[in-house]
Amino acid sequence: MYSGPKVTLEQVLANRERRANRQREWINSYSLPLISFTINMMGEVKRNKISNVAFDQGYQAILDVCRIQDIPVVSIEKYCSDTGSELLISAGLSSAEEVKHAMVSIEDEHPLGRLFDIDVLDEKGIAVSRDNFNLPRRKCLICDNEAKICARSRAHQLPELMNKMSEMIHDCK
């Protein structure tokens, strides 16, 4: 469940830069709100059974919400590498704020939503944040603290986090 190719911090940072470049290219090409989806995967293995199941479920949830809320999918592309799977979607005829609200509903309501990282950028490439709407920040997988606080302080050990993620995947089947 946890096995897969290990990645270094340098690989993760280089991939983050590639993603930002792809996002800029998409914004320049389409001038539409952009959905960027990845999985919050702790540890040095970013692609494994947990992340694959979570990604597939998140991918489907995004497409379902776009269909239900009449958010047109103008273009879609999926990338897979050792650093994880990624999805980009240009969302037509919708405001970035509408798209962000729809994506927050997935993160907050889907059984695996806490594992999802769904970013929305407006047609100028500016990230639309939960803070823009005074929405609560994401919670930690383990406790009730803000996820960023626990992540920065390394409040929880990797095995504890991986066990929680595994439980979430198992419970979602």
Tell me what you see in this structure:
45% of the residues lie in helices and 18% in strands. It is built from five helices and five strands. A five-stranded antiparallel sheet has the order 2-3-1-4-5. Strand 4 and strand 5 form a beta hairpin. The model has no long low-confidence stretch (mean pLDDT 93).
Please report the total strand number as a whole number: 5
Proportion of β residues?
A: 15-25%
Helix content: 40-55%
Backbone CA Rg? 16 Å
The shape is globular
The number of distinct helices, counting runs of at least 4 residues, comes to 5
> Termini distance?
14 Å
Mean pLDDT: 93
Class computed from helices, strands and strand pairing: alpha+beta
Main β-sheet, spatial strand arrangement: 2-3-1-4-5
Low-confidence stretches: none
Oligomer: single chain
Spell the H/E element sequence.
HEHEEHEEHH
Largest sheet: 5 strands, antiparallel
SSE inventory with pairings:
Elements: H1 9-30, E1 34-39, H2 49-68, E2 73-81, E3 84-91, H3 96-109, E4 116-121, E5 127-128, H4 147-153, H5 158-172
Antiparallel strand pairs: 1-3, 1-4, 2-3, 4-5
